[in-house]
Amino acid sequence: MTIEIRTQGRVDYPATVQAMQDYTAARTDTSPDALWLCEHAPLYTQGLAGKADHVLHPGDIPVIATNRGGQVTFHGPGQVVAYPLIDLRRAGYFVKEYVYRVEEAVIRTLAHFGVTGHRVGGAPGIYVRLDDPHSHAMLPQRPQKRGAEDAAAEPDFDGLGKIAALGIKVSRHCTYHGVALNVAMDLAPFARINPCGYAGLQTVDLSTIGVHTTWEEAAQVLGQQLSTRLAP
After folding, report:
1. Torsion region of 65: left, alpha or beta (phi above 0 gives left; psi -120 to 50 gives alpha)
2. Rounded CA gap, 115 and 135, in Å?
3. What's the mean per-residue pLDDT of the chain?
4. Per residue in 199-229, pLDDT tens?
5. Is 38 assigned a catalytic role?
6. What distance in Å separates the CA atoms of residue 228 and residue 205, rounded to the nearest whole number?
């Protein structure tokens, strides 16, 4: 079953979350999977695990509690937000694999623009090297297998900037919320929070690392990658 891609442009955040919840609640086994691509006016969203002290100086930017996983992040113009609405049971893979596939779609999207995206052990999302965003060299911080007795290492963001944040919700084995890719944004609001709960984590976008593209092109590439990689 193909994924129905809907490019929505600038949409209201609470209304979009409500629409995702309504779609998910009303789904049947034959409902098509969907992918909504949009952007939001400036706002902070606080995930279920979110701690209030990670919101440092919100100022006039609203802070909205939401039911996705993770901590606080920022949404604003110039960011492509992708909301995959996938029936995982029908797709035939579990949540961990779903997260891997979403991250892989972002990595392939960045590669389209000549940028190497990286995973960091213990920290969902996609990161780039600040000194050389085009380097293919593997990160020492990459996820690695560990023994049953080994404690999870604290994420190490040294030399890295976060370019895509992930926050998902699964209800009745169906996904909503999703991933946000920074294209050409005002990044200043990220300095007024601990992004994803990490103090001092630097956030970047494509324009900061020298890639000049449009929101529409980035949305189109990301949408194509997600629709390919989330297929059963």
Report:
1. beta
2. 8
3. 95
4. 999 999 999 999 999 999 999 999 999 999 9
5. no
6. 24
- Contact of 82 with 191, CB cutoff 8 Å: no
Give the pLDDT score at 154: 86
pTM of the model: 0.96
CA distance linking residue 219 with residue 221, whole number of Å: 6
> Angle of helix 95-112 relative to helix 215-229, nearest 10 degrees?
140
Domains in the chain with CATH codes: 4-115+163-197+207-229 (3.30.930.10)
- Contact yes or no for 222/105 (Cβ under 8 A): yes
Contact (CB, 8 A) for 227 and 33: no
| Annotated active-site residue in 82, 196, 218, 219 | 196
Q: How confident is the model over 121-135, as pLDDT tens digits?
A: 999 999 999 999 999
Residue 42 is given by DSSP the state: S
Q: How many residues does the chain have?
A: 232
**HEC string for 61-100:** CCEEECCCCCCEEEECCCEEEEEEECEHHHHCCCHHHHHH
Alpha helices in the chain (DSSP H): 13-26, 88-91, 95-112, 215-229
